[in-house]
Specification:
The protein is an all-alpha fold. The protein has 18 helices and two strands.
């Protein structure tokens, strides 16, 4: 692994009150990112709650389509996640031209990856048929994907711009855009799914249209701010947009491809569980999709802290501050662990109240879905802390451009340990969906421990990655 070793740097005597300063800076940066993540998940919960009113089969079909879409999104987003670390490192090193190049090439990569995948998403129904999913869900899955797929490009491009504003310590602008998007999404879902306010009743097709329209709105809104508002406009991120910087282009793929692999392994772990649950019927899928919403909500805090850790560690790397880089990582991990332990108690206390929000009690299939969702949530409480810890440890490692070994850890933890145990419990021990959820506990626990140990090992070495030269491509501006 390329980089520099600073012997004994992490053992340097800390300045008085360093932890308070780092804690304050981390919270200041993370809070808008966390709220942005919560606004994003609020859109997903709105979609799930409103689609759930259509019945178990439409919810199951939409969930299957969403899982396939999410795999494509995670792959693209994982690659462009490299722009967060690379832009933060350039900002910390006071190289605005390099920041511009990173973001410009990030948008190039977004177009290159997203456009072909939109075409491939048109084959969702045949894929689900091959995977043996319930036949009653296939028509619903195809209807939802027919319009949902068009939001892929704008949602990934929005992620690049979010990384840009976060790297400049201004994540709050993305928060306001996301809040506005969440409110518009509620209106469009209610109008297009159920035919309110004079709109046609389009059900799942309408849900996809709403999501695609909102993501386009958010991307264009944040792009306008990045182009015209201070302090972003001085970076002129669209200036000479057609001109390549092949060094940064390769860097995004070099750092980002293992991130994408790691995210795919983790997301595939959860998404693969949906397809396994499909063997137990639509009720099992619907219950899982409801139950997973609460851990998804609580996970947004460590997800935001993970992104903050990437930026804080990356900025310290740009300053060549080895002590500051590792302090930032440890502070983010400590905050996450404390929060998620509290969330473990919360999840145990409110499973039935939460799950009932997604169901129409008048429907005949609702009691069975509710009972199974509550059971899943009980087991979900026990992977909260591990899930948060693995996310933030991975984020801190990304700030160090350390992405290849974490990908190997993800493969072993999620698929070797978690999925292996989950399949055995589901089929071998006859526990069905409960076995899959216990697999989550073991897989995430293993990942949390191993990624934390990886960060600790690099801290002991005093490792910092080598920075990209500002003159990597003299022709680029």
């Amino acid at each position: 692994m390329d980089g520099t070793k600073f012997d004994g740097a992490v053992d340097a005597a800390p300045t008085q009150g360093w932890w308070r300063k780092e804690l304050a800076e981390t919270v200041r940066l993370a809070a808008p990112i966390v709220l942005t993540q919560l606004a994003w998940v609020a859109m997903l919960i709105t979609d799930t709650a409103m689609i759930g009113r259509l019945g178990a089969e439409p919810l199951a079909g939409a969930s299957l389509s969403l899982m396939i879409f999410f795999l494509m999104y995670v792959f693209c987003f994982g690659v462009i996640t490299a722009t967060a670390a690379l832009a933060a490192q350039a900002f910390g090193a006071r190289k605005p031209r390099t920041v511009r190049r990173v973001i410009r090439q990030g948008l190039w990569v977004t177009i290159l990856l997203s456009v072909p995948l939109v075409f491939l998403l048109g084959f969702t129904e045949p894929v689900l048929t091959i995977l043996g999913q319930p036949v009653e869900t296939l028509t619903h899955a195809d209807a939802y994907m027919s319009t949902l797929k068009y939001c892929l490009l704008s949602s990934v491009a929005f992620g690049v711009l979010r990384n840009f504003v976060a790297a400049l310590n201004r994540p709050i602008v993305a928060l306001w855009i996301m809040i506005a998007g969440a409110l518009v999404n509620v209106f469009l879902d209610y109008a297009l799914i159920f035919g309110n306010f004079g709109f046609p009743r389009l059900e799942l097709v309408g849900a996809g249209i709403a999501t695609s329209a909102v993501n386009a709105f958010m991307f264009l809104g944040l792009l306008a701010i990045a182009i015209f508002k201070k302090p972003f406009r001085r970076y002129t991120i669209l200036g000479r947009f057609w001109r390549p910087d092949w060094y940064q282009f390769r860097q995004i793929f070099r750092v980002g491809t293992p991130i994408a692999g790691t995210m795919l392994l983790e997301s595939g772990f959860f998404i693969g569980a949906v397809f396994v649950l499909g063997q137990f019927g639509a009720i099992a899928i619907a219950a899982h999709m409801i139950a997973i919403q609460l851990p998804h909500v609580t996970f947004m805090v460590p997800m935001g802290l993970s992104q903050a850790a990437t930026v804080r560690v990356g900025q310290a790397v740009g300053r060549r501050d080895v002590v500051g880089a590792y302090r930032a990582g440890w502070i983010a991990m400590g905050l996450t662990l404390a929060f998620m332990l509290v969330m473990t108690v919360v999840v145990v206390m409110i499973p039935e109240l939460f799950a009932s929000l997604f169901l129409d009690s008048a429907r005949a299939d609702s009691p069975a879905v509710l009972a199974l969702a509550v059971t899943y949530l009980f087991y979900g409480a026990f992977f909260q802390a591990a899930d948060g810890l693995q996310a933030v440890a991975a984020g801190a490692l990304r700030g160090l451009n350390d992405t290849a070994i974490p990908m190997g850890i993800a493969a072993a933890s999620y698929w070797g340990v978690g999925f292996g145990i989950g399949l055995w419990l589901a089929f071998g021990a006859g526990m069905e969906g409960v076995g899959i959820w216990l697999g989550f506990v073991f897989g995430l626990g293993c990942a949390g421990i191993l990624l934390t140990l990886r960060f600790r090992r690099l801290a002991r070495r005093g490792y910092l990655p080598t920075l990209a030269p500002d003159t990597a491509d003299p022709g680029a501006r």
